[in-house]
Amino acid sequence: MFSIAYHPIYKHPLPEGHRFPMLKYELLPQQLLHEGTATEKMFFEPEIADLSNIFAVHSKEYVNHLLDLTLDARAARKIGFPLSAELVERELRIAQGTIQGVQNAIQDGVAFNIAGGTHHAYTNHGEAFCLLNDQAIGAQFLLNNTLAKKILIVDLDVHQGNGTAEIFQNNNAVFTFSMHGKSNYPFKKETSNLDIALPDSTSDDKYLKILNDTLPKLIETQKPDFVFYLSGVDILDTDKLGKLSCTIQGCKKRDEIVFELCEKYQIPVQCSMGGGYSPQIKTIIEGHSNTYRVAKDIFH
């Protein structure tokens, strides 16, 4: 049985124009419970993260500006959400959900955060709806507590994990792998340990072949003892912000590749949801639900 981090504040209401992307945080738990993929006892409500774990990744100056709501206007605009105490609390709880998740994954094999995947958050600033980098925080927590020696971050969101790449650019204990749309945001990419930039309209066959050719070799060469998986469903051909052409079935097969490798090599994996911006909410929910269904089949 795996665990799932979820808190009601994940569906924090935002001004008109921002509400649709947040709807999935309310509907996804309902769908997983309705179909029996998850049970109530699998969910836990994360507390607010201890600031020492946040400061291990993000600069104190930046975090204190978030906490005091004193971020300057330009920095706030880069984030894209109106800054509020509730939004900052939401990010701190998401971070703790991933911190708790990594500990649960060591025990259970896999753990989930309904939110997270905030890979555009840098050491000293946020952008693109990301304030704090939950998987980077979780990775540093593992290292600081000697729970892992080598970490592989597998970022398969359609957008490059630019913040994650910057945070770990000088840390040999973390290998960052990002496979993303070449012409998607961010237009100025950072340098991950391995970046694979895909051309527009990349379909299932090409996407899955590249992943199959790459990820097993990475695991064999890097020998990670923990994996973070960012499973954005914005690689779908229906996505408004993505430019790839993967189907629901292809996206599900992607999840199978990642989880089957983690299970084969007995590597614990923490999974955060990342992006998904298809026009119909049912498409987003189906894509994300498949990730949980696959994990249930493989790990249990």
From TrEMBL:
Coiled coil: none annotated. Residues 24-280 form the Histone deacetylase domain. The keyword Cytoplasm does not apply. Keywords: Hydrolase. Belongs to the histone deacetylase family. PANTHER family: HISTONE DEACETYLASE 12, HISTONE DEACETYLASE HDAC1-RELATED. This is Histone deacetylase. It comes from Flavobacterium hankyongi.
